[in-house]
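Lab meeting, item 3. Inverse folding demo.
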C-alpha cells in the first residue's frame, strides 16, 4: 500500500476528455522516509500537488489555444500536470517540472491512462539553479504565487530559463502577489497582458481569476 488514497477524475478540455488519477482529498499524507520534510514540503502542503485546482483547469484551457509551433515549453509546479498533458496531446515539446517526490509517478500514470507518450519530467526546486535544464521559448504555471516570496523565486526561475524572445503564461486565482511578479518580469523586459477570468461556474463578475501573458522580444 502506498500510504495514501487515490481517485479518478475526468476533465473536458477542447472537446477531449482527460482521465486523471489524483489524491482522494487534501488530507492525504505519506512521507515515510522524511524526504518531503527535508526539502521543505510540510504535511499541510504535501497533498496539494495531487489535485486539479481551478487555476490548473484555466491553464489547461489556455494551452489548448496556445500557439505551440516551434516552441520548447516548460511547466513550473506542474502537480498532476493537466496543462502539460493537453500540450502532449497536441504534440508540443513540453517539459513538466515540480519538486514533489510523487509528481513523476502520477504524471507517468496519467499519461498512460490517456494513451499518451510519457511526459518529459525534471525535478526542479525554484530556489536551486539547474543549468542543465536549459532555456525555453515558453514557460507556463498555474497558482504558483500563493506566498509572498514566490514572486521573487518564480521571477528568478524565468530569468534563468527563458530565452531572449520568450513568453510566460501564469494563471492565478487572485491571491494578490501577481502584481509584484509582473513588476519583476517587466524589469526583465517582458510586456504583460492581463485577462480576468472566472475560476469556476459560480464565479460571477468581477472575476477574481487572472490569465497573465508576458512576452519579450519580437515573437508574435
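The presenter then showed the designed sequence:
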Amino acid at each position: 500500500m502506498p500510504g495514501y488514497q487515490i481517485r479518478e477524475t475526468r476533465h473536458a478540455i477542447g472537446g477531449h476528455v482527460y482521465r486523471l488519477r489524483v489524491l482522494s482529498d487534501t488530507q492525504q499524507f505519506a512521507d515515510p522516509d522524511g524526504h518531503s520534510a527535508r526539502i521543505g514540503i510540510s504535511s499541510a502542503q504535501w497533498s496539494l500537488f495531487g489535485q486539479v485546482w481551478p487555476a490548473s483547469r484555466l491553464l489547461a484551457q489556455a494551452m489548448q489555444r496556445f500557439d505551440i509551433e516551434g516552441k520548447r515549453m516548460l511547466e513550473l509546479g506542474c502537480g498532476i500536470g493537466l496543462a502539460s498533458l493537453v500540450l502532449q496531446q497536441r504534440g508540443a515539446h513540453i517539459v513538466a517540472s515540480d519538486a514533489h517526490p510523487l509528481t513523476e509517478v502520477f504524471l507517468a500514470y496519467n499519461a498512460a491512462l490517456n494513451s499518451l507518450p510519457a511526459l518529459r519530467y525534471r525535478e526542479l526546486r525554484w530556489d536551486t539553479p539547474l543549468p542543465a535544464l536549459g532555456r525555453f521559448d515558453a514557460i507556463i504555471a498555474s497558482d504558483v504565487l500563493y506566498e509572498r516570496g514566490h514572486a521573487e523565486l518564480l521571477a528568478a526561475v524565468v530569468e534563468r530559463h527563458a530565452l531572449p524572445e520568450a513568453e510566460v503564461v501564469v494563471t492565478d486565482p487572485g491571491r494578490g502577489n501577481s502584481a509584484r511578479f509582473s513588476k519583476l518580469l517587466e524589469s526583465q523586459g517582458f510586456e504583460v497582458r492581463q485577462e480576468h477570468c472566472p475560476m469556476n461556474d459560480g464565479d460571477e463578475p468581477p472575476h477574481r481569476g487572472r490569465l497573465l501573458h508576458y512576452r519579450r522580444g519580437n515573437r508574435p
